[in-house]
Design brief:
heterodimer; A: alpha/beta; Rossmann fold; 10 helices; about 40% helix; B: alpha/beta
C-alpha cells in the first residue's frame, strides 16, 4: 500500500482519526493525504445529486489567508504526521465533498473516514450522508476509524462463503500484509445453512498461506445480531466486513442503530466492495 | 505467501506453466494449488452454457492413469524446488464452474494462452478461456509457452475504474515487479484527447511503480504492437478487463487477442 486518504471535515478535527490513519500509514510506509472537505452550501450539495454539478475546487494550502478557519486544522494535521514520521500531503476540497472523495478513491489504495464527518448543518443523522455515500460507492476499500485507538492485535474477518466476503478478506490482506503475524479470526455465522466442507477447506488453505495464526469461530443465529454480540467483547481488533454485507452494512448505515453500533463497539471497520 | 491456482486438464501436464512457477518461487514464497479438472467439458456437451459443443475425446481410463502419473511428476517437481503444493481433484464436476470456485480462494490463476482447452478449440483465446477470464474471482495471468519474468510493464489505461483496479491489483500481487520499467499507455484516435485524470493516475502509479512513465499515443491500437511492443524487452500487459464493455476500445478484446495470439505477450487481467 502506498497511498492512504484521510477524509476529514474541514471545520472540525478528530485527533483519534488522525492518530489511527497515521498508525496505518506508518505501518505500511504509505503516504497519508489529509483531505479537508468543506461543504460550502446545501445548494452545492444538492447539485451533486443532479447532472450539472460544477466540479469541486481543489486547492493546495499554500497562499491561503491566515484567517482561514480550516488552516489551523491543516497545521495540526501536518504536525501530527511530522511527529509520527509519516509523509503527508494536504488537499482541500471545496464544494462537493462526496463527489470529490469518490473520484479520489479510484486513485487511492485506502480511505480512512471519521464516522462523525458531516457537511450539512441540517444533516443531523448519524452517520451523516457523506459517510453513507462513501461506504456504498468508494472504488477502494474504506476504513471507518474508531473513537479511541490503542493499537491492533488481531484481525476479525467476517466470512460466509460468498464471493464478496472473500473479496474483502483478500483486499485487506493485500493492503496490509504487515498483519500476517497478528492473530486472524474468521467468524462465520450460520442460520441453519449447510456447511460446504470443500469451501471451508479452501478458505483454511488460503488463510494459512497468508496468516501465521488463524482461528475459525462459528456462531449460530441471525448474522447481524450474533456478530454485534461477538464484537462487543473485542478490543484492539480491526473488523473486515465483506460478509453479511446487506444486513450489517444496512444496520450500520441506519441512523437509529449506527450510533450505538459504532460507539459501543469502538473498533475500526474495513469495508471493501466487489 | 501467494496462492497460485494452476488448472490441470485431466491428463495434461502443464510443463510450461510449471517452468514459469519455478522462476517465480525464488522471488516470493508460493503455495501452488493444482486443480485437476475434467479434460472434457461436460457443461458444453450438455448445452448448459453458451460454449461450442464438444465431444468427449479421451477415454476416462487412460485419463485416470495419466492423472496419477502426472500427479507424481508434479509432486516431485515442487518438492525439488521447495514449492508448497496442494492438489485438488474435481474431476467429477464441470470444469469451468469448478475453476471459478477455486479462483475465489486463490490470489492468481495461471493459464497457458496457447493450450487452455486446446483439445476442444485450438483457436485462442477460445470460448473456454474467455469464459474463465470473465468469471474468474481472482486475477488471471495468461502466459505464452516460453514465458519470462517482466522486463517492462504496459499498464493499459482508459480512465475507467476497471483499468485502475487492475493497475492497483498488479502492484499488490507483484510488489517484486514494481521496480521494472512501467509504462502507462493511453491510446486515443483523437490527436488532442486528454488523458483522463492525468494528475491522479500519475500520482498513484508513481507511488507504486518506481520507474514510471506515461505514453500517450494517437494511433490505432493495432499499430501499437507493430511499433512499440516490438521495442520493449519482455513486456507484460496489465489490463482491467477482457472484452468487457467497461474498457474502451483502446485495449479491447481485439487488442488483447492480438497480443495473446500473435505476440505471445503475458497478459494480467483483473476485474472486480
Amino acid at each position: 500500500m502506498e497511498k492512504i486518504l484521510l477524509a476529514m471535515d474541514g471545520s472540525k478535527q478528530n485527533t483519534y482519526a488522525i492518530d489511527f490513519a497515521c498508525y496505518l500509514a506508518k505501518l505500511t510506509q504509505s503516504r497519508l493525504t489529509g483531505v479537508f472537505l468543506e461543504g460550502t452550501s446545501d445548494e452545492r450539495m444538492q447539485g451533486f445529486l443532479g447532472v450539472d454539478e460544477p466540479e469541486g475546487v481543489e486547492e493546495m494550502t499554500n497562499g491561503l489567508r491566515a484567517a482561514d478557519p480550516v488552516l489551523q486544522h491543516v497545521h495540526r494535521f501536518r504536525e501530527a504526521c511530522l511527529c509520527r514520521e509519516v509523509p503527508a500531503k494536504v488537499h482541500r476540497d471545496r464544494g462537493v465533498p462526496v463527489g470529490d472523495i469518490l473520484l479520489e478513491s479510484r486513485f487511492s489504495d485506502l480511505i480512512v473516514v471519521d464516522p462523525e464527518t458531516s457537511f450539512r448543518s441540517v444533516d443531523k443523522s448519524f452517520p451523516g450522508r457523506f459517510i453513507r455515500e462513501v461506504l456504498l460507492a468508494a472504488e477502494c476499500p474504506v476504513v471507518v476509524s474508531p473513537y479511541r485507538f490503542e493499537g491492533l492485535d488481531e484481525v476479525i474477518f467476517t466470512y460466509n462463503g460468498i464471493s464478496s466476503s472473500v473479496f474483502a478478506i483478500k483486499q485487506f490482506t493485500y493492503l496490509l500484509p504487515e498483519f500476517r503475524q497478528k492473530k486472524a479470526v474468521v467468524v462465520n455465522v450460520r442460520n441453519g445453512e449447510e456447511v460446504v466442507i470443500e469451501e471451508q477447506y479452501r478458505m483454511k488453505e488460503w488463510m494459512s498461506a497468508h496468516y501465521d495464526e488463524v482461528e475459525f469461530v462459528v456462531l449460530k443465529g441471525e448474522a447481524s445480531d450474533e456478530l454485534f454480540g461477538y464484537l462487543l467483547d473485542r478490543k484492539n481488533a480491526i473488523v473486515v466486513l465483506g460478509a453479511y454485507g446487506r444486513g450489517i452494512l444496512s444496520r450500520f448505515l441506519k441512523p437509529s442503530h449506527a450510533s450505538l453500533l459504532l460507539r459501543t463497539i469502538n473498533l475500526p471497520i474495513f469495508i471493501a466492495h466487489r | 505467501m501467494k496462492k497460485l491456482l494452476l488448472p490441470v486438464e485431466g491428463g495434461h501436464y502443464p510443463q510450461e506453466l510449471l517452468d514459469f512457477v519455478s522462476t517465480l518461487q525464488p522471488m516470493a514464497p508460493l503455495l501452488l494449488t493444482a486443480a485437476i479438472v475434467p479434460e472434457t467439458d461436460y457443461v458444453s456437451m450438455a448445452g448448459l452454457r453458451d460454449l461450442p459443443s464438444s465431444a468427449p475425446h479421451s477415454c476416462f481410463g487412460d485419463e485416470e492413469r495419466m492423472v496419477k502419473y502426472n500427479r507424481k511428476r508434479l509432486e516431485q517437481f515442487c518438492e525439488e524446488r521447495g514449492i508448497k503444493l496442494a492438489v485438488h481433484e474435481d474431476r467429477e464436476d464441470f470444469a469451468l464452474p469448478c475453476l471459478r470456485r477455486e479462483s475465489r480462494y486463490a490470489d492468481l490463476m495461471l493459464l497457458n494462452s496457447a493450450h487452455f482447452f486446446e483439445d476442444l478449440d485450438k483457436d485462442q483465446p477460445n470460448a473456454w478461456m474467455k469464459e474463465m477470464l470473465h468469471r474468474s474471482e481472482c486475477p488471471v495471468l495468461l502466459m505464452p509457452d516460453k514465458a519470462t519474468l517482466p522486463g517492462e510493464l504496459i499498464l493499459a489505461y482508459d480512465g475507467s475504474a476497471a483499468s485502475v483496479f487492475a493497475i492497483r491489483q498488479f502492484a499488490y500481487l507483484f510488489p517484486e515487479f514494481c521496480r521494472v520499467q512501467a509504462t502507462l499507455v493511453y491510446i486515443h484516435n483523437e490527436f488532442d484527447a486528454k488523458i483522463p485524470e492525468e494528475d491522479a493516475v500519475r500520482e498513484l502509479c508513481g507511488l507504486h511503480y518506481k520507474k514510471f512513465r506515461v505514453l500517450k499515443l494517437k494511433m490505432r491500437p493495432a499499430d501499437f504492437y507493430h511499433t512499440w511492443i516490438g521495442m520493449m524487452s519482455n513486456p507484460w500487459l496489465v489490463t482491467g478487463s477482457f472484452g468487457r464493455s467497461a474498457l474502451s476500445e483502446t485495449f479491447s478484446r481485439s487488442f488483447s487477442t492480438e497480443l495473446i495470439r500473435e505476440h505471445k505477450v503475458p497478459v494480467f487481467v483483473a476485474h472486480k
